[in-house]
């Protein structure tokens, strides 16, 4: 009789939104699944699971990364920020979150966490984007609802809000 082999689990530490988590995961565990199922951080959404839609975008050391393309065991080397970590310590939404609400940049909201993380990182690189640059910034994220016009406006509005903040980031 063949012995059923148990899948090896690895003890890892993940730094997410400033908190260190210890968990045991198989080597094949995707970061997106570890965040949602092991840590309960369901703000990171999963659409295509193929790196196409951008719904699962998180920040790794401040850079936007597809959580569905990164293994949890490989994420231990990075400081991870999910959409839950974008707000300030007092829970105040960041400028991008406020701009999306103000400009109606969301409808069903499924894609929104990926846009918020992407744009938050994008405005750090380019704090004052032209309209073309704003479009380019979100080109890797798919939304089935909004037609993108309001999302582009939200990027521009977020840039305005951030430039008005003191001190500058
Ligand atoms: S779920 Fe990761 S890019 Fe679509
Ligand atoms: S708001 Fe519905 S998918 Fe973007």
TrEMBL record:
Ribosomal protein recorded as keyword: no
Keyword annotations of the record: 2Fe-2S, Iron, Iron-sulfur, Metal-binding, Oxidoreductase
InterPro entries: 2Fe-2S-bd (IPR002888), 2Fe-2S-bd_dom_sf (IPR036884), 2Fe-2S_ferredoxin-like_sf (IPR036010), 2Fe-2S_ferredoxin-type (IPR001041), 2Fe2S_fd_BS (IPR006058), Beta-grasp_dom_sf (IPR012675), Diverse_Oxidoreductases (IPR051452)
EC number(s) given by UniProt: 1.17.5.2
Group of enzyme by EC: oxidoreductase
PANTHER family for this protein: OXIDOREDUCTASE WITH IRON-SULFUR SUBUNIT (PTHR44379)
Name of the featured protein: Caffeine dehydrogenase subunit gamma
Annotated source species: Pseudonocardia autotrophica (Amycolata autotrophica)
């Amino acid at each position: 009789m063949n012995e059923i082999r148990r899948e090896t689990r690895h003890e890892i530490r993940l730094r997410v939104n400033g908190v260190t988590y210890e968990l045991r995961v198989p080597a094949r565990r995707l970061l997106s699944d570890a965040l949602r199922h092991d840590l309960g951080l369901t703000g990171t959404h999963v659409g295509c699971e193929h790196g196409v839609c951008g719904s699962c975008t998180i920040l790794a050391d401040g850079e936007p990364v597809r959580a569905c393309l990164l293994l949890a065991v490989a994420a231990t080397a990075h400081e991870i920020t999910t959409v839950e970590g974008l707000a300030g310590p007092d829970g105040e939404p960041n400028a991008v979150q406020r701009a999306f609400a103000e400009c109606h940049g969301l409808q069903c909201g499924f894609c929104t966490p990926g846009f918020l993380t992407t744009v938050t990182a994008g405005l750090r690189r380019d704090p004052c984007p032209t309209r073309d640059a704003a479009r380019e910034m979100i080109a890797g994220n798919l939304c089935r609802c909004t037609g993108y016009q309001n999302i582009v406006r939200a990027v521009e509005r977020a840039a305005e809000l951030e430039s008005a903040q003191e001190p500058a980031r």
